[in-house]
Design a protein that fits this description.
The complex is a heterodimer. By secondary structure, chain A is mainly β. Chain A contains 1 helix and 34 strands. Classes of the chains: A mainly beta, B mainly alpha. The interface between A and B is medium-sized, with 28 and 21 residues.
Chain lengths: ~375, ~100
Amino acid sequence: MTKLLSILGFILSFNALAELRATGDLGIVMERENGNALIINTSHHKRLAKIEKLGDLSHASVVFSRDERYAYIFGRDGGLSKIDLLQDKLDKRIIQAGNSIGGAISQDGRLIAVSNYTPGGVKVFSSDTLELVADIPADYGEGKRSKVVGLVDAPGQLFVFSLFDAGEIWLLDLKNPKTPVIKKFPNTGKQPYDALIAEERYYIAGLFGESGLALLDLWNPEAGVKRILPDYVKDDEKLPVYKMPHLEGWAIAGDYLFVPAIGKHEVWVIDKHQWKLIKAIPVTGQPVFVMARPDARQIWVNFAFPDNDQVQIIDANDLSLAKTLTPGKAVLHMEFTPRGEQVWLAIRDDNRLAVYDTETLQEIAYLPADKPNGIFFSARAHKTGL
Amino acid sequence: MKKLLLLMLFSSTGFAGELSTERQNTLRNMLNNDCGACHGLMLKGGMGPALLPDNLAGKPDEYLAATILNGRKGTAMPPWQAFISHDEALWLIGILRKPMH
């Protein structure tokens, strides 16, 4: 009998071994219309699992726990879902607002912050239990509440975000989560629509309602918010914008920041010491994501409707357009492998993911996915502000 | 043959506001994806306002069509007239006014 038990124990442990999985080369793909998340393996170009019923994922984004075991999915409908990448299952899910637009994870990995349109504000949750830790309504003026955009995490247990309707930037310090400290910067420019954090130091918001960008140096917040390129685009020169650019993918390469222009079919190259425009590179349409390959040698750009069948690649060495690809109908998102040898594209209307070799610029693999609109790799866990 | 010709006449030109199935699919896809980018997949709103039947009640068709075709200054709503005709805008409004589409 004991013999039998020990054999049984051996078999069980063997099974457990066979199912061991690391998460460093995994990722999450959003299927926008049917509300699914796919867990994928980037080394073997494989789909591992499908997690269903995650609500409206039409503008979903993902952050990862610092151990890269859990993925937190922010849905458009206010859903916050915690996915266990080791066990292919939904760990917890809450509906925390009526309408939301993304989130961030704190420096120490303990807090998840979500930016909400309705009701406008930021809610902060325990990354472990998804219990509410802090509720920060985006109140401004007399009894008004603003949509919140451009929420990022920053060193020092900070979250930084922008108030679309109020034109303000807020700095939220959660070193002590029970007593949040908020520093508000008013009059930072009309209608900030998204923001990024560069070099874990510069918070930069793009403005829709007026020309230029708003810059806050987190090493020196006392200096206030400064405007970059204030007069560059005149109102009457603006082309229609069929999709707002996304700024979390803004790219820094050496001394230069590559930025999607808004209302212009250009990528701007900005010197990060002077915050001056070095060059405006004409591209095929309204850029949405402008993303540097991890080594920053190439800058990949995708576009708003009606030019979203194309992807253009800028050579960061001579600031010229190197190549135009036509990967398929409606290229919505791009995600580089951690060291950049490959890039994955979400091609919504072709119902597939394409993997490109970034040296040969050839498609080397593809996977089926139903209306994919976002790809997020677990390596994001160790990057600030993504 | 006569029947076929008649059918072709109907499907290509048709009545005002009657669109080919292919064009209807394209417009529905635009509604889901391109309109949905700001107004939400469920049209419950986002950067742009909600477009559910209750939200549109009391707003005349022509007013809504003008917003779709010309956009609205001072907001993020762009003009769609390069991609959508007046009749197509009215067709889309008809879809939006129905409770489940």
